[in-house]
Every structure is written in structure tokens, then in C-alpha cells.
UniProtKB/TrEMBL annotation:
InterPro entries, A to Z: Methyltransf_25, SAM-dependent_MTases_sf
This protein's record includes keyword Methyltransferase: yes
SUPFAM superfamilies for the chain: S-adenosyl-L-methionine-dependent methyltransferases
Keywords noted in UniProt: Methyltransferase, Transferase
Region (Disordered): 1-24
Manganese in keyword set: no
Protein name: Methyltransferase domain-containing protein
Lineage: Bacteria, Bacillati, Actinomycetota, Actinomycetes, Kitasatosporales
Domain Methyltransferase: 77-167
Example GO BP: methylation
GO molecular function, one term: methyltransferase activity
Amino acid sequence: MADPITTDDRTTTSAPTAADDRTRAYWNTRHREQDDLTAGGHIGLDRPGHEIFYALRLGTLLTLIGDLSNPPSPLFVLDAGCGEGRLARALSRCGHRVDAIDTSSEAIAHARAKGGGPRYAEASLTGWRSPWLYDVVLCVDVLLHVRDDAQWAASLRNLASLVRVTGRLIVSDEDGHARTALGDSIVHRTTAAYRSALQPLGLHHTLSKPYGFRENPVGFHVFTRIR
């Protein structure tokens, strides 16, 4: 089991905002009431459906990240919004060195209990600081839950700041042309909105890859740091 990330590792978090507090309360409740398969999954899926959904996303992620990792020179990966660590553990098993953060203390407690290689920390998307840059920063099915546009933009700015030159930021959302809200917990933003937020920060949109799971229109957007 990997050690938790501490201030001795020179990683820090900024002070939480009111939006962070609301998000934390929502996800703490969800992770308290559900297990690692369903808490971060898609509402409406049964357990076999969740298993398939995770497997498909992992397989697609591995094709996007590549197979360049090896024991002497692993890829450094940040899983931002890791939930209870299911994807983070899988990436660690594939030889990557994974830091994994989530705003939910419940999720991080469950993730640490399971171990499996990643180093876990409780932190928001806007609050995580690291003394090193990452080869890959992942934010899977998280940003679409950030309803506040200012918080969404701040999250992207912070995640972008953690990507090394030629590294990749991989986020997930629909590849759509209109902003759409679903209920009280989901807002889908356009691909153009992601480009507008990230291109001034030196990240170029290089690929969109849909999950290809049933009727789910969400997929991965890959942004590569060019400067």
C-alpha cells in the first residue's frame, strides 16, 4: 500500500471555497452510501453495466496514455477526482506512478483502505498543488459535475498548470455544440468551451474519443501542452 501524500512530500492544497464545501458534502454522502463500483459510476446502470463501463473507459484511457511506462522510468499520472480509486489502481497496476486526489474525505478513506499503489490525498480540483509536473493529468467524469462556470474554469486552469510540456490533460464531457444542463448535478459544456479555456494556457486540443458505451454521448478530450 502506498503512503498517503503528506506535506513532507511538498504537496499542498489551497483553502477550500464555498463551492468546494458544497461539492464535498454531496460526494461524501454518495461515497458513504455506495461502494466504489457505483459511487462514481453512471446513475441507472446495474452492477454488470458498471463493470463494463469501467473496463471500456480504462481500455480507451490506456490507448490514449500509451505504453511508454517501464519500472526505471514510469509515467507520472494525476487522477483528479479519483473517487474511491478504481481507475487509479488500474493505472498503477499498468506500471504508472499515480497520484490520486478527491474532494471527498469518504472517498479517499475508502481508496486508502484498498491501497493498490496510488498515493492519495484529499483535495479539490482547484486546490491541488504539486512540486512536480505530470506526464498525464486525468479528470474523468468530474468536470461535468461542476455546475458553476467560474469554478469549472478555475479547475481547468489549475489542472493545466500541472501538465509538463508535451504532456497531456485528458478530460471527459460530451463532444457537443451546445451547453446543456441535466438535473441539479450535471452540466455538459461544448468542446469549443474547453478549447477556449485551455488554448491560452498552452494546451492544444489533439483528439476527442467517445466512450462508445451504449447511448452515452460522453467521451475523452485530449489536450497536449505545446508550450
